[in-house]
Design a protein that fits this description.
17 helices; single chain; three-stranded antiparallel β-sheet; alpha/beta; pyruvate-formate lyase- activating enzyme; 390 residues; nine-stranded mixed β-sheet
């Protein structure tokens, strides 16, 4: 921890902090997933109790007075039995939520029932994020999903009929063997259900996942252009791209994720949950809960055995750039100046000049951002920026 918690408790920035709750349980593990989750549900009730306890302690200790957004993710939060989920949602509803707080819960199609939607509708939840991934049976099989086109379609019909809140759908593109027509068809089917928000992710073969182990580049081609053209199709269909992989109808951007990208304060509870708070001294303090159920349950103290890290100086600047340039709007010059006491153009002048000359970055009086083409090379931009920072 810092020499004292005083800076964290005293920082006015932390008085308003978002909340992420990690529910690390799934009914099955997808072959591409490297998020912390388990399919053994034997410790579910104990983990939930510990998570709610940790949430209350964080809010009290760090002096959080307002919670503008909540995101319950995982894992699959809706794999919780309804009585346990009801207990969790009642607990969240009693927290100091701001009026009209955006409160999101993730779900997989196979967990959606009329009873679940009735429970969510009667709670603080007003935004449902559904992991569709694809409507193609062959793509779903490649991804190791335990649902098919029929399940996805029928569950969306139930949601369309019974859910009155916001709806976000997750899709994955550039899957081995997936064609452009497959991805376009996924988008058109998704749009037919009228979601407010669509996340279109380009598949990453993460080391250690079953999909990465089984991938055969000689027989399973991955066409990177599929994602690019599918993203164009989303924009043509009226969904505005506001971040690398996220698209929304006007006024329906994810407020919670936008707070992440702006490095605004948030607490993360549950095994694997991560918090980022402001020290009040031009620095961040990160708390990462252990992705281990038994160690999490057996830990004592405020942090439940979490790992901690102070992020200051050039590390803080780089993280600010890494997150801010993900957004199509880029970084507001005034925000950067207020945060670091210097102009963005003073920090990475050569990188900005080079990328603007190439037409890959753009600058106005208010902001600096990567162009549509520039976002395709975000990683290279960040490497250039990091090299100049060092």
């Amino acid at each position: 921890m810092p020499k004292s918690y005083t800076a964290l408790k005293a920082s006015e920035s932390n008085k308003s902090a978002s909340l992420y709750i990690h529910i690390p349980f799934c009914n099955s593990k997808c072959s591409y997933c490297d998020f912390f989750s388990v399919t053994d549900h034997s410790l579910m009730a104990q983990v939930l109790d510990k998570t709610m306890e940790q949430t209350a302690r964080y809010i009290d200790y760090f002096g959080i007075k307002h919670i503008p957004t909540v995101y319950i993710g995982g894992g699959t939060p809706t794999s919780l039995p309804l009585p346990l989920l009801e207990k969790l949602l009642a607990s969240v509803g009693n927290l100091p939520l701001e009026e009209d707080s955006e409160c999101t819960i993730e779900a997989n199609p196979e967990t959606v029932t009329p009873e679940l939607l009735a429970l969510l509708s009667g709670s603080c939840i007003n935004r449902l994020s559904l992991g569709i991934q694809s409507f193609s049976n062959s793509t779903l099989k490649t991804l190791g999903r335990h649902c098919d086109f029929k399940t996805n379609f029928l569950k969306l019909e139930v949601i369309q009929r019974l859910w009155k809140g916001q709806l976000s759908l997750d899709l994955i593109s550039s899957v081995p063997g997936q064609s452009l027509s497959d991805s376009i068809s996924d988008i058109d089917t998704a749009i037919s259900f009228g979601p407010d928000h669509i996340s279109l992710y380009a598949l990453t073969l993460e080391d250690g996942t079953p999909l990465a182990w089984s991938y055969d580049p000689d027989s399973q081609a991955i066409d990177d252009n599929v994602w690019i053209l599918a993203a164009d199709h989303l924009e043509i269909s009226g969904y505005r791209r506001y971040e690398v992989s996220n698209f929304a109808l006007p006024g329906h951007q994810s407020e919670h994720n936008t707070r992440y990208w702006k490095l605004l304060p948030y607490i993360g509870t549950g095994p694997g949950g991560v918090s980022t708070l402001h020290t009040g001294e031009r620095g961040l303090f990160r708390i990462a809960n252990l992705p281990d159920l038994e160690r999490y349950l057996s830990s004592d103290g405020l942090l439940c055995g979490a790992e901690t890290e102070e992020i200051t100086g050039k590390s803080y600047i780089f993280e600010y750039l890494m997150m801010g340039f993900r957004m199509t709007a880029g970084i507001l010059k005034s925000d950067f100046l207020a945060t670091f006491g210097m102009e963005l153009s003073e920090v990475i002048p050569e990188t900005l000049a080079e990328w603007k000359n190439k037409g890959l970055a753009s600058e106005t009086d208010e902001a600096v951002n990567l162009t549509k083409e520039g976002l395709l090379f975000l990683n290279q931009f960040l490497l250039d920026a990091l090299s100049e920072l060092e």
